[in-house]
Structures are given as C-alpha cells and as structure tokens.
Design goal:
Pfam families: CRS1_YhbY. The chain is an alpha+beta fold and about 100 residues long. Helix content is about 40%, strand content about 20%.
Length: about 100
C-alpha cells in the first residue's frame, strides 16, 4: 500500500510519460492484463488511457486492472490511469 507522499512522488514522475496501452470499446480482457503485467515489470510506472468509445468507468477499469495485474493504482485523472508496481529485476524508482 502506497502512502500519500509516495503517490505524490509517483504522480510527479508519471506526468511526463505517454500512455502505453489503450482500453477501447471491448473493455478489459485477459490479454490486456497479461500485457500490462509484462510491461509494468520492466517499467515500474506506466499510464493507460481509456478511449472515448469505452462505456466503462475509468476508475472501475483502473481498480480492476490494478488488482488483476498485482499493481498499485496511483491515480485516475480523466481517462488516464497511472499504475505502479515495484520491479524485482529492473528496479529504477526509489520511493521516499
């Protein structure tokens, strides 16, 4: 579980990142979760964008994606989801 200070720090790092994955009208599926798990192991911090044609709520998508991928939900702002998971092999981010 992340503290408020850690979330603020991660939000500042994520500000300059571009979204890696997009959730479209098909919504979430197992393939998307598998790709997110692989990418977050390498990057630790990533953004996912929810397209306008997706009918689901971005906050619900973010919570489900975080729980299914084993990561932490840092922020959902608009249609952008920020996820964090500490990497075992590629550790780059040192939390305060």
């Amino acid at each position: 579980m992340l503290t408020g200070k850690q979330k603020r720090y991660l939000r500042s790092l994520a500000h300059h990142l571009q979204p890696i994955f997009q959730v479209g009208k098909g919504g979430m599926n197992d393939q998307l979760v598998r790709h997110v798990e692989d990418a977050i192991e390498k990057r630790e911090l990533m953004k996912v964008s929810v397209l306008n044609n997706c009918l689901e709520d971005p906050r619900e998508i973010g919570e489900e994606l975080a729980s299914r991928s084993g990561s932490e939900l840092v922020q959902v702002i608009g249609k952008t989801i920020v996820l964090y998971k500490e990497s075992t092999d590629h550790k780059q981010i040192e939390l305060p």
